[in-house]
């Protein structure tokens, strides 16, 4: 007994495990998230974390050691700064007050002389007063000579001294410069000695003038500092560019080599630095994934809740990163950065492409070590890829969009070189052509990858839908030649479905393509369907209603088999399977009910379904029935068309065929109006229905076409 219980528990556990983990969409999402993170982290780390070396001074370099990224040589930069600063001469400011003060002191002194001379005092007292008032260190004999001077002589001496001092102190006399001071005093003595004055007056002039000769050029520390700071700013840092040689193979390792390798993170001792780099890469990738996930959850839940679409996004991100790391060794400008944008635009939509491709530029930035110029190119390249691919409806046009994207990339590259004053023509040409090549490469890779995604993940893109809608498709050609009536009916249903889908915001391309293929199962037995019967010979007249209903309903299963054979997308298969839902084949059900004594059940005469799950499937179901019903009318009026369309749609609603579809009452009303608009003026002969008893008359005018 216990064994049975244990077995039951184990079975329940397995069942729980299968449902809650391996079939749990959240678990799959987590696996996709973690796998994407792991791959992108590994690829980004290769770009960010360089190969390490265990070298010391005196060792021989085993190979050329190149810079893994752009980095600044701080020592060389500092040497350039110091050289620039030392080349700036000291700045001096001239103090003109030295001259003005000297001239003023001479004037004041001799004005005092005149004042004292004009007094009534005795000469002795005058000399003492002048001596007391004087700022000059003159001898008593000199004062005596000065007091005895005539006014004219005093005026001449004053003028002479002022002129000499003004002339000498107008020249630069640098502070703490003995040569400048000596030169100035020698010049003054020269002027005095060459004057016509008496020797006693020359002596007085020297004793007055020499002390007034002082330095007038002083060191300006503030202006000097400003000039040196400006010189420092003008120094361009010494930058080792990515792939620039640090050490050549066979060179002896010096202390400078060790410094540069340490700066570039190329030594094994840089492990702690690597940890922080790894952490930074990890956090950034997680942030990128969260941004994309949040956008999908918030605005594109139809993508968020479908794991195959999440897997497509994951694979695209990883593929782009792989191509980036490979092509980056050739040129960062050649990277197919628009690959993400183009694929996401083709598979999903432009907004989704934007919110996936722009954050993914972060990964490319890691791989390229955040080179500023290419980084701008990657962002603009992604945006231009989205813009140029948005209106593409043929695969060949993808390549043309790639060319346009490449041209935009080339212009951005050219602009970047002009802005950075890089006028090296050869380098500019190479970079521009590489940028153009990057856009073209993005398109070429998209052309190769898109069919793989379409086949592997059973997705359907606008381009694929347009291709499927091409009348030259082999299966549509078969339908045309083997079941021409069904083909023309399908074309009309396609027109009805496309117009209605446009009106309610459904996928009109999918609705049209689905309508074209919805009846392909009739190829197997075309003449069992009225639209393909050229003569009045109807094979249903020779078999039972039950068998007829079986043949009629089998066209859905036959259509699925043909769709699989011709590898039609799953979305088209679903439309084929759902386009009749569980509708009753009322024509043969009524005949069987009228002519059989056996109990006839509706289930025997109903399609297997399922009922339409999507707007597009619902539209095709309604368009199929409406087109058949209206064509069966003989020369109907507009009111009769409107009445028939309304009746068909109401019958489908009453039969519960639209219960599982995501349609509102407003949508249904819009679909009805769209059908009526298209059907006006289109009238084709349909099958004539037999007289029915009361049971049949309840559905008169709405019997499903066969």
From TrEMBL:
Residue ranges occupied by any HD/PDEase domain in the UniProt entry: 482-638
SUPFAM superfamilies: HD-domain/PDEase-like (SSF109604)
Keyword Transmembrane: yes
Keyword Membrane set for record: yes
Residues that span the membrane, as ranges: 27-49, 275-297, 309-335, 341-368, 375-392, 398-416, 428-453
Pfam family, any one: 7TMR-HDED
InterPro entries found in the cross-reference section: HD/PDEase_dom, HD_domain, HDIG_dom, Metal-dep_PHydrolase_7TM_extra, Metal-dep_PHydrolase_7TM_intra, PgpH_phosphodiesterase
Assigned keywords, A-Z: Membrane, Transmembrane, Transmembrane helix
CDD domains named in the record: HDc (cd00077)
PANTHER family, A to Z: CYCLIC-DI-AMP PHOSPHODIESTERASE PGPH (PTHR36442:SF1)
Protein name (Swiss-Prot/TrEMBL): HD/PDEase domain-containing protein
